[in-house]
Design a protein that fits this description.
Blueprint (H helix, E strand, L loop, with lengths): L5 H11 L10 E4 L6 E7 L6 E7 L6 E6 H6 L9 E2 L9 H11 L7 H10 L6
Antiparallel strand pairs: 1-2, 1-5, 2-3, 3-4
Amino acid sequence: MDLVTPELREQLIANGRNPDRDRVPLVKWFNPAGAGTWLIVDADPEDPDIHFGLMDLGFGTPELGSVRLSELEAFEGPFGLGIERDLWFRPVHPISVYAEAARRAGRIVEFGPELDQAARSRTVPAGA
């Protein structure tokens, strides 16, 4: 399975041209045989191998940062399993909300009280 389709690559690069916006992740990659989850928002337009997003390597300290797609594509885990793209990933929040929820939970979360609380804390009341 391709971690990035041509259409997805175009969207990631387009997001990379405007890195100051708090965008919704476009893709989730994961290690099916162990720890490792990446929620990716963009690719560097100058070097599309470099992707930015929220990363959780299973040490309890998820963080925002960059990863090389080529390194993830080259990874071979137990039984020859590689990193995969979650075809069912449907993000609803900007990356800042996922990052705050991950900080609170010690891991990337896609639903539950940590994500709900992070989403509420990012919401600005009308008229504020």
